[in-house]
């Protein structure tokens, strides 16, 4: 414990600013999605991943990986999305224990409608605040963290 | 709707990388805090804010502002922290409707113990992955977002 590598002042300020930015931004986008489309950001992400997949369908295990969600959190969200009629579950013919999540036409329509406002929010609250240079830097910083944590 | 300012490829890639980084990083730090100190990151933040305040005490409204938490989310968390004996609530003598949250000695000891591992996690998973230049850039980017969303 004696050799804990404490943060210096610059790192401390960066960390505080970063977690504040994350929290304010995700709360804002969550509120907007909830207000305009009746769903939290996590649901939106699931619908996006399904909309990008062939036949709008993904195995639950692949969907968990692509939406960076734990299996239990994903199961809970997909159950809610099923109730809403936006997603259907179907057993995998080739794997008795597996199942697919499939985006319904209703779910696709909801996603299309939600996307306009959400993208506008992402632009207003993030990209409009950054220079081109900062956008590139943010990508490089984010990719460094992602590469480290998915290695 | 026709004039939605969709993201270009670079912005799209940046956004994907950014939300992946946020999710992977916060999940990782949450898991580590849960494993090593038996609390999620939100609780840790509340204990830190209280530890920095004079007499380790803050009005609930100030605590909500400093921890960027909604009042309802904060009330819920503070109730849990009270159960754990890490925080006490006390009525404000000067404001009948207000109350203070106070960090207990036990809560302070828990925080001190948790801080070592948590700071090590922040360093390992974020700062060790970035150059000095990137740390400065991340602070500037984060501050731009915070300033926009708290204006």
Describe the 3D structure.
2 copies of one chain form a homodimer. With 151 residues, chain A is mostly helical. Chain A contains 6 helices and 3 strands; from the N terminus they run ααβααββαα. Chain A has a 3-stranded antiparallel sheet. Chains A and B meet through helix 1, helix 5 and helix 6 of A and helix 1, helix 5 and helix 6 of B.
The helicity of chain A comes to 55-70%
Mean pLDDT of chain A, rounded to whole units? 92
Strand order of the largest sheet of chain A: 1-3-2
In the predicted model, the low-confidence regions of chain A spanning at least 5 consecutive residues are none
Name the biggest interface.
A-B, 54 and 54 residues
Keywords:
homodimer, 151 residues, mainly alpha, three-stranded antiparallel sheet, 6 helices, 12% strand, globular
Structure at a glance:
2 copies of one chain form a homodimer. By secondary structure, chain A is mainly alpha-helical. Helices cover 67% and strands 12% of the residues of chain A.
